[in-house]
């Protein structure tokens, strides 16, 4: 029972930690010194790969590395790896699929939270420059986007 609680805690920490780390890296690094890579995402050339996808490889590698390490009976580390990989899966579906339509999404639910997330991210892309910009998270965003403007 304790082992399952540790695993579940790791998964939650991995998911929440990626949202926090992702927000911080997006705001201060991607829209700062790493803009030369991230700008390809704000000016997409089509539905193919972007230089910005290198960030996904980095985070994915981090998640897989923790999974690999955690398989050696480190339950909390395993949970963190699962949480980070789950966040990557959410990012792939929600960000690349629903928001940017980089691939055909089989299902798109009309749920107010998801619609607000899409509005928040599209507002983030209004600027084609590093600054000013807003709403740097994926799952967490300013509450003003929860109210649909007519």
Question: Which SSEs are present, and which pair or pack?
Answer:
Blueprint (H helix, E strand, L loop, with lengths): L1 H29 L4 H8 L11 H17 L4 H25 L12 H13 L26
Description:
There is one protein chain. This protein has five helices and no strands. 61% of the residues lie in helices and 0% in strands. With 150 residues, the chain is mainly α. It has one domain.
Could you estimate the helical fraction of the residues in percent? 55-70%
Our Rg estimate from Cα atoms comes to: 16 Å
Shape: globular
Mean pLDDT score: 88
Strand segment tally: 0
Number of domains: 1
Cα-to-Cα separation, first versus last residue: 50 Å
Described by strand count, sense and barrel closure, the largest sheet is: none
Estimated structural class: mainly alpha
The helix count comes to: 5
N-to-C SSE string, H for helix and E for strand: HHHHH
Pick out the low-confidence regions.
Answer: none
The amount of beta strand, in percent, is under 5%
- Assembly annotation: single chain
Which key terms come to mind for this protein?
5 helices, 150 residues, mainly alpha, 0% strand
Q: What's a concise summary of this model?
A:
The chain is an all-alpha fold. The protein has helices at 2-30, 35-42, 54-70, 75-99, 112-124. It has one domain (2-107).
